[in-house]
Amino acid sequence: MQVAKQNKRSSGERPKLCILPGEGAAAEAMLSSVAVLDALQLPLEKDMLDVRTMTNEEMYRHMDSSHATWFGAMADGVNLLGYLRWTRGTYANVRPVQYRENFNSPLKHPENIDFMVIRENLEDLYPPREGDVAELKEIAAGHPEWSKLEDGIYALKVISEKNTRNVAQFAAELARKRKQEGHPGKVTIGVKDNVLRKSDGLFRDVAMEVLSAYPDIEVEKCIADALFHRMVLNPHSLDVVLLPNMLGDLLADGAAAMVGGLGLAPSACIGDDYAYFEPVHGTAPDIEGKGIINPTATLQALAMAIDYLGFSNESAQLNAAIEAVYREGKVLTPDQGGTSGTDEFCAAVIKNLKRGEEI
Ligand code: ATP
Fold first, then answer.
1. Distance between Cα 53 and ligand 1 center (Å)
2. What is the distance in A from the centroid of ligand 1 to the CA of 266?
3. Rounded distance, CA 197 to CA 199, Å?
4. 204-221 pLDDT, tens per residue?
5. Please, what are the domains in the chain?
6. 0.90 cut: is pTM over it?
């Protein structure tokens, strides 16, 4: 769970991490996971934000004075996430899809599944730009096809050269880093360019051009529907998968289910000078107050955050400690077939971190 990019800050500047636990059971996972961060004893400043007492504007100021944010989930976090995403320009959404021993995967042979979904994070069909078809007909008066549209609502899809270039560059660097670690070093571009010839065609062309500067990286293009099919049948053929925003949103959640579900799916959103890290799941209100939410995705997001802040060794140690808890299989939460609680899981991770130090 490491990321290809590290935060740029002046030398000697102490890294600062905003921590926003959010709401519901997701906040319980975060608060238990903070004990794991503390056990790592990193030289970083923690800035705890509280949605119950702070205004959004106050939180934006805190985020702006930090190097990254570690985020839980909120029932209505649209404005905060919008700030972290669009105002801070975090263009690459990184979604690791990595099976580890004893993950509760529904597949017969999930062993060694290990690929990364890189989803463009700023455009395409999100943020929503929707309107009445009648208005569209007015704007596009005289357009032979548009004037025939049935009444209804339209949604605008935008692909730009700039954002595609940024995210393709990120995917290329990540593939190169993974190749050094023994992975194939391949980027699979998934698009619907057989239908969306201009928009997804531009995404394909710009991504191909960026990747042509990386002769050590293999590149392939796949039509997105065939890619989704292949992901389930032959996930081992994937290394880094690069997708426009909405296709990436869909494929990454399907990929998370393949390795064991939402409790095991972390996410990073990375830009040129800021990044935020979160579990993919929401607030999980149905298990709030029960102390059983699986904190794995929250901890994996933390592992990516500290890697981004420059603590790569500690990030690897944290990942290894999480994997050891699963390998031992004694302290697992109910979603993974166990009977343990959130705090017990985090305590087991801390125990493994300490054991790792002694070896
Ligand atoms: P929200 O409205 O905040 O999106 P939600 O319930 O619609 O919440 P999730 O929070 O993603 O969506 O939860 C979907 C289901 O998966 C719920 O049944 C929830 O309990 C379960 N779930 C999500 N995350 C975890 C986790 N980390 N551990 C255990 N179960 C989880």
1. 24
2. 13
3. 6
4. 999 999 999 999 999 999
5. 1-98+261-359 (3.40.718.10), 105-124+160-259 (3.40.50), 125-158 (no CATH)
6. yes
